[in-house]
């Protein structure tokens, strides 16, 4: 559930932190006070498009942060693990935007993409409003809603997909086999590629080694001259060679050792230097004698480098060639044994296809049965919501011929599901999207949520003025239904109905003030007395009205009695 919503520089809100609680959280206020700002802020942090017009006037950026308690939400943990985000005691979702249009999304301090943010929060919050029922009106979503209501459907669906995917894979592989002439051309091409790579057989790091050798060959004369010059400096036949000079120094020091023994150490060190110089000189002579820079060898190196580079250009990095060769041999084997493989695939396709058809039929029967139970539950809720003449049906259609089942199937089976409804007695059933009344749509959605809230596994439901077009006794029923949903889920409801406000477990008043030469929106957590006054205002009573106060208290007592019962 949402524990806290922090808003900074969104529209008329300068900075505000809202503490939400379990149960039914109601937000009410005067028209234009800023109720929509709260929903806009929530939508923004949950992944809506960053609209920089929401940024408060004269401010350069805006921030919204939502803190969730998600300890028991397995779907959230799964998404966090998928993205490598630490699963901490509280889940913090933070989003900011600047006047230049930049937006930043973070989950538990980790930067994420907007798509990742949306995937996570879809497990946490479901927002519904008078103008935001597109998911419910989209018939493509009806089958998912129905399936969540059927206990046996997920297992059947998993079994269907195992066989259906095997069928599709077999069909794709069958389609990949071309005619005999095309197969022979592919075989020739694969054999040529394999032979070309194996002929060159480049090794990892070989090109770098060859380039180094080539550099030596290209500078061989300079290397030889430098080695010769260095050896001459060390061991010249003349008296000025380094070795001779070192020997002279030793001789001079030996002549004075008898005067002071401390010079013996210098002699010993110079002896070591003389030995090291002799070793270096000998190795330099050996290098010069072993130098064999044959121009033909340079040509071989150049050819080898060119061969390796051609292979890399045609087939990719050297590190990936082994895998390329392996896959090429596998493909070659399949092509050479195409007739045998095609026969195997036809058997796999036939077997998996038959099983998929069988399970698809079972799915269809189960969905029809579940649809009937679901329809009865919806009708019961709608009647309680004052829609006594409304008829509802889950329309499940299925291909008549077995041959058509697999051709029209997808990962959800071969069924087509849509919700049909008749708002008034004697009218024909129509698709849900054809309902004209906003009030009827609101009540239908509330009735649906009352049934499916537990099944969807979403901890927080937000209702933004879904009570539009509702009043009187029906308003009380809507309040009761929202209270029912809030027993197992946190509910946030923006309302203008006194009946719903009276039912609140937590009641916030949204107000607009003029302060410091500007206008700001603030939220106030109401106590019992404050809630009574707000219920009076929503009911149209004057603040001093005795009867209005009595009516508000009566509504509050009615709500308490319902919740206690």
Can you put this structure into words, describing what you see?
With 565 residues, the protein is of the alpha/beta class. It has a domain at 1-124 and 458-565: Rossmann fold, CATH 3.40.50.300. It has helices at residues 35-45, 74-83, 114-121, 134-137, 142-149, 153-176, 180-200, 206-218, 220-235, 242-254, 263-290, 295-315, 321-336, 338-384, 402-408, 438-456, 472-485, 498-502, 528-538, 546-564; strands at 2-10, 13-19, 24-29, 61-68, 91-98, 103-107, 110-111, 125-129, 391-397, 416-422, 430-431, 460-464, 490-494, 506-515, 518-525. The strands form three sheets. It has a six-stranded antiparallel beta sheet, with helices on one face. The protein has a six-stranded mixed beta sheet with strand order 8-12-13-3-14-15, with helices on both faces. A hairpin with a 7-residue loop joins β10 and β11 (430-431). The mean pLDDT is 86.
Mean pLDDT: 86
Architecture (CATH level 2) name of one domain = 3-Layer(aba) Sandwich
Helical proportion, percent range: 55-70%
| CATH homologous superfamily classification of one domain | P-loop containing nucleotide triphosphate hydrolases
CATH class of one domain, anyone?
Answer: Alpha Beta
From the N-terminal CA to the C-terminal CA, the straight-line distance is: 24 Å
> Which structural class should the secondary elements be placed in?
alpha/beta
Give the helix tally: 20
Rounded Rg: 41 Å
Number of strands: 15
Strand order of the largest sheet: 2-1-4-5-6-7
Which stretches are low in confidence, meaning pLDDT under 50 for 5 or more residues running?
none
Which word captures the global form? flat
- The fraction of residues assigned to DSSP E strands is 15-25%
Please summarize the sheet with the most strands: 6 strands, antiparallel
CATH names the topology of one domain as Rossmann fold
């Amino acid at each position: 559930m949402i524990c806290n919503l922090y808003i900074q520089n969104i529209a008329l809100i300068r900075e505000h932190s809202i503490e939400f609680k379990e149960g039914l959280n109601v937000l009410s206020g005067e028209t234009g006070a800023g109720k929509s700002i709260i929903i806009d802020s929530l939508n923004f942090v949950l992944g809506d498009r960053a609209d920089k017009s929401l940024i408060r006037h004269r401010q350069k950026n805006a921030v919204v942060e939502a803190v969730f308690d998600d300890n028991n939400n397995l779907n959230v943990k799964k998404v966090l693990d998928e993205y490598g985000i630490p699963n901490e005691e509280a889940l913090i979702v933070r989003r900011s935007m600047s006047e230049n249009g930049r937006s930043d999304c973070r989950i538990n301090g980790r930067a994420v993409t907007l798509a990742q943010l949306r995937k996570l929060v879809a497990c946490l919050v479901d927002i519904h409003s008078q103008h935001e029922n597109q998911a419910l009106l989209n018939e493509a979503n009806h089958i998912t809603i129905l399936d969540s209501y059927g206990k046996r459907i997920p297992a059947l669906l998993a079994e269907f997909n195992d066989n259906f995917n095997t069928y599709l894979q077999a069909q794709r592989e069958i389609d990949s086999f071309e005619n005999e002439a095309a197969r022979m051309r592919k075989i020739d091409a694969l054999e040529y590629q394999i032979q070309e790579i194996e002929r060159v057989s480049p090794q990892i790091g070989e090109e770098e080694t060859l380039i180094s050798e080539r550099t030596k060959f290209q500078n061989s004369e300079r290397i030889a001259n430098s080695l010769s010059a260095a050896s001459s400096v060390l061991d010249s036949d003349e008296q000025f060679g380094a070795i001779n000079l070192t020997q002279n120094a030793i001789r001079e020091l030996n002549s004075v050792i008898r005067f002071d023994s401390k010079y013996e150490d210098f002699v010993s060190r110079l002896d070591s230097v003389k030995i090291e110089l002799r070793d270096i000189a000998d190795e330099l002579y050996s290098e010069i004698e072993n130098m064999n820079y044959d121009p033909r060898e340079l040509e071989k190196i150049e050819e080898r480098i060119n061969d390796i580079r051609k292979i890399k250009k045609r087939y990719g990095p050297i590190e990936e060639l082994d895998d390329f060769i392996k896959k090429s041999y596998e493909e070659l084997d399949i092509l050479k044994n195409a007739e045998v493989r095609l026969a195997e695939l036809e058997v796999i396709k036939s077997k998996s296809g038959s099983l998929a058809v069988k399970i698809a039929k079972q799915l269809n029967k189960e969905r029809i049965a579940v649809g009937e139970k679901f329809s009865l539950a919806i009708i019961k809720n709608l009647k309680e919501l004052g829609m006594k003449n409304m008829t509802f049906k889950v329309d499940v259609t299925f291909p008549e011929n077995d041959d058509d089942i697999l051709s029209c199937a997808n990962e959800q089976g071969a069924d087509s599901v849509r919700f049909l409804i008749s708002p008034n007695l004697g009218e024909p059933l129509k698709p849900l999207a054809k309902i004209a009344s906003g009030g009827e749509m609101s009540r239908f959605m509330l009735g649906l949520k009352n049934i499916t809230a537990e099944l969807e596994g979403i901890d927080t439901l937000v209702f933004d003025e879904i009570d539009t077009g509702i009043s009187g006794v029906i308003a009380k029923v809507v309040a009761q239904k929202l209270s029912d949903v809030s027993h197992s889920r946190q509910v946030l409801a923006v309302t203008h109905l006194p009946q719903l406000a009276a039912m609140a477990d937590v009641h916030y008043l949204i107000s607009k003030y003029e302060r410091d030469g500007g206008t700001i929106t603030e939220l106030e957590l109401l106590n019992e007395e404050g809630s009574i006054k707000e219920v009076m205002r929503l009911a149209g009573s004057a603040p001093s009205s005795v009867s209005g106060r009595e009516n508000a208290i009566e509504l509050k007592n009615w709500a308490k009695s319902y919740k206690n019962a």
